Amino acid sequence: MVSQTIPYIRKIITRNKRSQNIFSIIGLLSMLVGIITLLALIFDLFSDGWPRLSWQFVTSFPSRKAEQAGILSAWVGTMLVMLVTALAAIPIGIASGIYLEEYARKNWISALIEINVTNLAGVPSIIYGLLALGVFVYGLNLGQSVITAGLTLALLILPVVIVTTREALRAIPNGIREAAYATGASKWQMIWDHVLPYSTGTILTGIIVALARAIGETAPLVTIGALTFIAFLPDSPITGQFPFVSFAWLLAPFTVLPIQMFDWVSRPQAEFQVNAAAAGIVLIAITLAMNAVAIYIRYRLRQKIKW
């Protein structure tokens, strides 16, 4: 009986290993297809736009002449809009995730909220643009301004931040919570001193993904009336007079790099296509720089936890 069972078990093990190897090869090929496609697109973008990159291109305003056009107002607008987006979405998203996971009662109301938040993460971005058009532009009379754009993109990524925060908190073992309670910690002390430090890395990963999505969005900003041609910069947030801080820039008209690129690629002249490619390189650089800062912060936080 044993002599008949052993070959059968070996046959099953061999078949499972074969299936595992086939799946690994399929997964590797799928990953290579995505990576090669991405590298091909990036190479094509750099080959077209790199010759156009210069200090004059980065520090000049848009122009009707392709050789004189620049992206100064576009990349400054991108940075300001992303600043408002981060300041609005990150604190609210993390606080909402903490409340839903740690404080909210587990009943049908919290289940309904959870389902709606999860579904909102998959809503097309133009829907958020229509919502912002009715609420921020016409309802609150904020106009086509930096704060309107920032709040619109904050609404867009808010569900992602909330879901990521909840999943990060849910992954922390309950033993850490129980140990904190055993030492006399309150619920907030348990969350702030024990749960959040261990979940910060995962939360920051979700924030990186959310901001990377927001920085490349065009549809919601077009919906709220973002301009494609701006030959001036918003007021400086820092002034030489007391109180040395100005918020006038929040109500200034704006444009961003994706909209500037959209305007250029829609023109028939080949020179504007080259400008769009060069602007795409700058947009990739800004995204990578933003992600690098977040990754460095995540690394430092994890190092503190290890110590």
Keywords:
globular, 307 residues, MetI-like, mainly alpha, MetI-like fold
Overall description:
There is one protein chain. With 307 residues, the protein is mostly helical. It folds into two domains: 49 residues; 254 residues, MetI-like (MetI-like fold), CATH 1.10.3720.10. Helices cover 74% and strands 0% of the residues. It contains eleven helices and no strands. Helix 4 packs across helix 6 and helix 7 packs antiparallel against helix 8. It is found in: Cell membrane. Its main location: membrane.
Can I get a quick summary?
This protein has 307 residues and is an all-alpha fold.
Major beta sheet summary: none
Radius of gyration: 25 Å
Looking at this structure, what is the CATH superfamily of the largest domain?
A: MetI-like
Query: What is the CA–CA distance across the termini?
Result: 56 Å
The helix/strand class is mainly alpha
CATH topology of the largest domain: MetI-like fold
Overall pLDDT metric = 83
The low-confidence parts are none
Task: Give the SSE order as H and E letters.
Answer: HHHHHHHHHHH
Task: Tell me the overall shape.
Answer: globular
CATH secondary-structure class of the largest domain:
Mainly Alpha
Question: In what range is the share of β-strand residues?
Answer: under 5%
Would you identify the CATH architecture of the largest domain? Orthogonal Bundle
Give the strand tally.
Answer: 0
How many domain modules? 2
* SS summary, helix count: 11
Helical residues, percent: over 70%
